[in-house]
Amino acid sequence: MTSRGARAGAEADGFDVEEALALVQENPGPAHRGHGGPGSHAPQHHDTSRHEDTHRHQGSPGHDAARHGRAEERHRATPWPEARATAERAARAAARAARRAPVSAPLDHALGLTLAAPLAALTDLPSFDTSAMDGWVVAGPGPWTVRDEGVLAGHAQPARLTDGEAAGVATGARVPPDTTAVLRTEHGRTDDRGRLHPTRGVVHGQDIRPRGQECRTGDQLLAVGTLTTPAVLGLAAAAGYDTLTVVPRPRVDVLVLGDELLTAGLPHDGLIRDALGPMLPPWLRALGAEVRAVRRIGDDAEALHRAVTTSDADLVVTTGGTAAGPVDHVHPILRRAGAELLVDGVQVRPGHPMLLARLKDDQHLVGLPGNPLAAVSGLLTLAEPLLRTLAARPAPEPYPVPLRDAVHGHPYDTRLVPVVLRGDAAVPLHYNGPAMLRGIAAADALAVVPPGGARSGEEAELLDLPWAAGGIGVCFT
User: Fold this and answer.
1) What is the pLDDT of residues 169-214, one digit of tens each?
2) Which of 58, 211, 245, 289 has a Cα at 20 to 30 A from 14?
3) What is the pLDDT, as a whole number, of residue 127?
4) How many Cα atoms within 13 Å fall on the side-chain side of residue 293?
5) What pLDDT does residue 155 have?
6) What is the CB neighbour count within 10 angstroms for residue 442?
7) What pTM value is reported for the model?
8) Quick one: which H or E segment has residue 9?
9) Beta bridge partners of residue 168, listed in sequence order
10) Fold classification of 400-475 (topology level)
11) Are the C-beta atoms of 124 and 216 separated by less than 8 Å?
12) Domain 52-100+248-390 falls in which CATH fold?
């Protein structure tokens, strides 16, 4: 049986993601700002930006063949704002190339997706005159004789009231014909003969929600490009929808590289725990992606080449292997696959050796550094704008917050520093080295610190973390 939501979907024939992107840009949604957060940490008093994040994998000793401080590498690397803009442009081009059709999603699977068709009311709201309060429905002036049978929500049309008559009524119940008003329970009393008297004046129509008060059938409630929040789902259900026509989630495959990674137990004998395998899939889902596969490739170049070239995901995400060491295979397999490097290194710390490549017109690869916080930096620099754009989500408006404490800067590169929000200020956190997760685990956001650093009280742009911005229930669906 065709669901009611399909009616609006039929009006969206010919829609593509690019159209939704344009509408989102014309009508940006409200910026999501996360305030308050877990824990409290002392501010940062030392400069971890001097530590290079060239380590090939998650905290392990790295190869030093290409020092990031060299002038030629700084010249090749992309400035941080430009890298984010490049990722957005790449996603727009991919959306045009793919022309992915909208999908029909049941309400319980549509949270966090973007409307690909306007939400038009399929019924009047409310669809009949209803009582806004518990009490009595009354007809004419009082006092009133009260019927033995009351009026309950969910029942068919009750019998007509005559002047001088009342009946008990529940909130949401259908109001009988010829009802004058609803008298609230606390505004009436009964005498010894069982007759109902008002304790204050009765106004015609009081506490009755008339049919169509909120909307009429066919009224547009929400436009294309609206993000489906819990409130949107409630409105859609009230308006008669079982499904919504939405932009599909971008599909992502995650490839975890490195022979030194353990999936369980304590580190031993030069082996370390894989932090990115457990962290990346839920983070990518928080960014609006459908994570289809998480594959452990190790340091096998042929396996990596097969995994990349056989994937049909919109985005392939790799971890580690983006530098120039003997088992750093990402660059060689991209050349072998004929990929186009759009971003090859970013002027940001941590995360300098991240990259973005176009595999096909409608497919990209984001190469994340292997160190955990550097990988987070890569997610927010390259993967977030790309996935947000593919999903036709509105871009959050940047907002500055003063830093409570000074933050040391890199001479040439932007720094992303975990912070917690305390009152009207952002407090920089300890443990913000490229291999560390302790700071970001307690953070509300990342502060964007320009080259040269920031003084105490100076404003810095914040990048909200998905769970701080949208709430756990929203961002992890």
Assistant:
1) 999 999 999 999 999 999 999 998 889 999 999 999 999 999 999 9
2) 289
3) 92
4) 15
5) 86
6) 18
7) 0.77
8) helix 5-10
9) 136
10) Beta-clip (2.40.340)
11) yes
12) Molybdenum Cofactor Biosythetic Enzyme; Chain A (3.40.980)
